[in-house]
Amino acid sequence: MDFKHISVQETASRMADSAVVIADIRDEQSYAAGHIAGAWHLTQASLANFIAKHDSSTPVVVVCYHGNSSQGAAQYLVQQGFAEVYSMDGGMALWQQQHPVQSGHG
Questions:
Q1: What is the rounded distance in angstroms from the CA atom of residue 101 to the CA atom of residue 11?
Q2: How far is residue 89's CA from residue 46's CA, in Å, rounded to a whole number?
Q3: Between 91-98 and 8-16, two packed helices, what is the crossing angle to 10 degrees?
Q4: Catalytic residue among 64, 77, 85, 88
Q5: How far apart are CA 67 and CA 17, in angstroms?
Q6: Cα angle for residues 33, 39, 45 (degrees, 5° grid)
Q7: What are the phi and psi torsion angles at 6 (to 5°)?
Q8: Which residues is 61 bridged to in the sheet?
Q9: Is 83 within 8 Å of 57 (Cβ atoms)?
């Protein structure tokens, strides 16, 4: 099974329905500077917690800078048993043009 691609618009729509978890794989500084509200900062250090906290049936949208790195991370989550994983096309670069972001580590 493979991950799927998802648009910024579809991600926002799924978030409005509380139907997805956002996994932001960017570096600490970029995440702190601005991320999707409620996004989980997914790093090597937080991966085990992420897997433990989220049921494998939880839909996950992986977000990076431009939608490239997120594809590898999305495939990795599929290999870890997550059934519904997406890579957000355009990444945060595109999201920030269309939607607000939250700063800080929250």
A1: 14
A2: 23
A3: 70
A4: 64
A5: 23
A6: 85
A7: -140, 145
A8: 22, 86
A9: yes
Q: For the segment 22-41, what is each residue's pLDDT rounded down to a tens digit?
A: 999 999 999 999 999 999 99
pTM over 0.90: yes
HEC assignment per residue over 25-47: CCCHHHHHHCECCCCEECCCCCH
Q: Tokens for 86, please give them.
A: 């997406």
- Has residue 65 got a pLDDT over 90? yes
Instruction: Mark whether 64 is an active-site residue.
Output: yes
**DSSP letters spanning 63-91:** E-SSSSHHHHHHHHHHHTT-SSEEEETTH
Q: How far is CA 10 from CA 1, 6, 88, 89, 105, in A?
A: 21, 6, 9, 10, 25
Distance CA 93, CA 4 (A): 19
For residue 26 the two structure tokens come to 């960017």
- Number of other CB atoms surrounding residue 103 within 10 Å: 10
